[in-house]
Structures are given as C-alpha cells and as structure tokens.
Design a protein that fits this description.
Blueprint lengths: L11 H43 L1 H13 L20 E3 L21 E8 L7 E12 L2 E8 L10 E5 L10 E4 L2 E6 L4 E6 L2 H15 L3
Antiparallel strand pairs: 1-7, 2-3, 2-8, 3-4, 4-6, 4-7, 5-6
C-alpha cells in the first residue's frame, strides 16, 4: 500500500454536529447585526431624515420630480429677461464697513430693508431662485445683502441667525439670515415690497457682523 497518501475519515455524526454549530454561529451573528442596524436606524434615522428634508438640493430634486409627473405646477426657474441677477457672493469680512439701521422706503434701498432679487444657485449658475435679502450696506449702485432662508436646517448653524417670521415670507414661515457670505446685489435687479426688519433684530445681526467679521 502506498505510504505517501494519508486517508482520513470523518463520521457523518461529527460532520452533522459541525454543520449545526456553524449554522448556530451564523444565526447569532445575524441577530447581532440586526440589532446593530436597528439601533442605528432608530437613533440616527430621524436625524438623517431631518437633514435630507432640510437640504435645498434634495428639495429641488423632489420639486423637479413632482413637476415631471405633473403633481405640481412648474415654478419659474429662469430670471426675468433684461433684469440684472445676483451672481456674486464674497466672505463677509471682505465687505467690512460701518453698519447703520437707516431704512427709508421713499428713497433708495438702505440697511434694514428686505428686498427681493434673483440669486443664482452656486452649484448650477444656469438656474436660481427669487430670494429675500437683508440690505446691510451699499457700494454705489450695488447693494450688500445677506440672504434669507426658511429652511429649518439652519436653526443649529452658527453662520445663520433666526429672524422669526415677517412680511417677506408669503407663507408666514420663520426665516434665518446667513452671516458668513455677502451678496453683491445690483440695485436695478431688486424688487421692493415694503419689508423692513425690526430694529432689534437688525441690531442682533449687526452685533454678529461686528464681533465676527470686522464690521464697525
């Protein structure tokens, strides 16, 4: 008999026991993974959902999807022909200057007034949105504005300050104003609707600009 081949023999009983043991281990691992997944979903799921609901990118995607299937009417996604649009923003410190509350609806748009302008999307300059903007200064015929948003996701963002609700939002939703970027708004491209921010709220915004962005 050849001696270079070693034959081993495993009883059917031993093989069955090993198979049952492996099945038990996989079941245990599956239950543990299931519990981990369940914990993640229940603990982090609501947070992720809120972030997605508050995402402007997601909201635009949902809007376009609903428009495609005819559930909602298509909103205007292009600027009014011939009217200048707001397509430039800079870090707020780059526009640092003295800020005063001087709204006057009978004259030019001045700090404290909220005006409307077409603001192009940063991720898609070919499209944009008609937005309310808080005027905080001017350079000749260019207004310096802080963008407003009704997206609740800004509530915990340090670069946004709550303003509450006002006549600038047709649905009466609370708004937040962005502090870290200033929009260069062509004055010829604004729409004025007589909205003026309360002086106390304006002073809160001004204090942030002075403390964080070198305004005076």
């Amino acid at each position: 008999m050849p001696t270079d081949v070693l034959l081993t023999h495993t009883s059917p009983r031993a093989t069955g026991q090993y198979a049952r043991w492996m099945a038990s281990q996989w079941q245990t691992l599956g239950r543990r993974l299931g519990k981990i997944a369940e914990t993640i979903v229940f603990r982090e799921g609501p947070k992720v959902l809120r972030q997605l609901q508050g995402s402007e990118f997601v909201q635009r995607g949902l809007q376009r999807g609903l428009e495609a299937i005819g559930v909602v009417e298509t909103e205007q996604q292009t600027a009014i022909p011939g009217r200048p649009v707001t397509n430039r923003s800079v870090p707020t410190a780059h526009r640092a200057r003295r800020i005063e509350y001087t709204p006057d609806l009978d004259g030019r748009a001045d700090p404290g007034e909220i005006v409307w302008t077409w603001v192009v999307y940063e991720d898609d300059p070919s499209q944009g949105k008609d937005r309310p903007v808080l005027v905080v200064g001017r350079d000749g015929t260019v207004l310096l504005g802080l963008m407003l948003s009704s997206q609740q996701r800004h509530e915990s963002d340090l670069d946004w300050v709550a303003l509450g609700s006002g006549s600038w939002d047709y649905d009466g939703r609370p708004s937040w104003v962005r502090l870290d970027r200033v929009l260069d708004v062509p004055e010829e491209g604004i729409r004025r609707e007589g909205a003026i921010l309360d002086v106390e709220l304006f002073n809160i915004v001004a204090r942030h600009l002075r403390a964080r962005f070198s305004w005076s």
